[in-house]
């Protein structure tokens, strides 16, 4: 008889007395639960390695610990294969609308800069890298081998990725979060937290900034404000074009992530609609980049 997620959580040796378990909404690479135990609350994340998405849970634990040491993320309480237990933060996730507000954007950008500047100082173990252009090439191979319905698009995607990689350099390297969805920012009323380090690794800061803007549907003016706040200087034409290339790459990767998930994920989620939405946004960004 296969153990249920609740069975696995109950079996952990870290609990003191009875526990109460409630599922948390969200999470499309893992399943999340809120656990009450002896007057404390914890978040339990259930998820194994996902090689097709370059997700290593060992790396996620190392990044989570480093982010906590840098003061950005809740503490890791316990981990074992397939299970990560984190301290619970009583906070609400931000929405894209929240992040687009100037006062909130300023706080978000400051937190992202702290991630890029501080987390690497605390990261231990083999260096993890998240290089979007490698990910795109690997996704293309997976989609080809898996008989994806999107195979006719792959040669165009690979050609575009090569053009974007040339346009986006030279590259500064920092420790990136690499998945800056609005819901990965929590506001406890006093400060912001950054959570979910599944994809964390060394990368160019422009990838995170491009992802932040595209995931939260920034206007051109908001993108300009974000870049000026991050770099604390006016935005040059060269920086703006390199940033736009990385934003396109971020959208291409998210589109192909969903395409791969259509044929490899067993989590209940409407990947087909998610693919269509991201493909639309990628094509719009690519046309804008070509015409700039």
From TrEMBL:
<keyword id="KW-0418">Kinase</keyword>
<dbReference type="InterPro" id="IPR011009">
    <property type="entry name" value="Kinase-like_dom_sf"/>
</dbReference>
<protein>
    <submittedName>
        <fullName>Choline/ethanolamine kinase</fullName>
    </submittedName>
</protein>
<keyword id="KW-0808">Transferase</keyword>
<dbReference type="GO" id="GO:0005737">
    <property type="term" value="C:cytoplasm"/>
</dbReference>
<dbReference type="GO" id="GO:0006646">
    <property type="term" value="P:phosphatidylethanolamine biosynthetic process"/>
</dbReference>
<dbReference type="InterPro" id="IPR002575">
    <property type="entry name" value="Aminoglycoside_PTrfase"/>
</dbReference>
<feature type="domain" description="Aminoglycoside phosphotransferase">
    <location>
        <begin position="21"/>
        <end position="238"/>
    </location>
</feature>
<dbReference type="GO" id="GO:0004305">
    <property type="term" value="F:ethanolamine kinase activity"/>
</dbReference>
<dbReference type="Pfam" id="PF01636">
    <property type="entry name" value="APH"/>
</dbReference>
């Amino acid at each position: 008889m296969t153990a249920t997620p609740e069975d696995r959580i109950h079996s952990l040796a870290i609990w003191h007395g009875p526990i109460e378990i409630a599922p948390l909404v969200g999470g499309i690479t893992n399943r999340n639960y809120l656990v009450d135990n002896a007057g404390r609350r914890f978040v339990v994340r259930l998820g194994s390695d996902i090689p097709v998405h370059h997700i290593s849970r060992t790396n996620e634990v190392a990044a989570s610990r480093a982010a906590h040491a840098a003061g950005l993320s809740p503490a890791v309480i316990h981990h074992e294969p397939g299970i990560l237990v984190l301290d619970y933060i009583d906070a609400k996730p931000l929405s894209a609308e929240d992040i687009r507000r100037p006062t909130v954007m300023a706080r978000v950008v400051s937190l992202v800069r702290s991630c890029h500047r501080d987390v690497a100082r605390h990261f231990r173990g083999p260096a993890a890298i998240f290089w979007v252009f490698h990910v795109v090439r690997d996704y293309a191979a997976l989609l080809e081998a898996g008989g994806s319905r999107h195979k006719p698009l792959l040669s165009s995607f690979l050609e575009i990725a090569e053009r974007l990689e040339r346009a986006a350099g030279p590259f500064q390297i920092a420790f990136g979060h690499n998945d800056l969805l609005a819901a990965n920012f929590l506001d406890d009323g006093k400060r912001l937290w950054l959570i979910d380090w599944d994809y964390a690794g060394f990368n160019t800061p422009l990838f995170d900034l491009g992802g932040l803007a595209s995931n939260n549907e920034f206007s051109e003016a908001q993108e300009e404000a974000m870049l000026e706040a991050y770099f604390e200087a006016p935005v040059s034409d060269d920086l703006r074009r390199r940033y736009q290339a990385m934003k396109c790459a971020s959208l291409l990767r998210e589109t192909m992530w969903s395409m791969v998930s259509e044929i490899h994920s067993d989590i209940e989620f409407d990947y087909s609609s998610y693919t269509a939405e991201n493909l639309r946004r990628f094509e719009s960004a690519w046309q804008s980049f070509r015409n700039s």
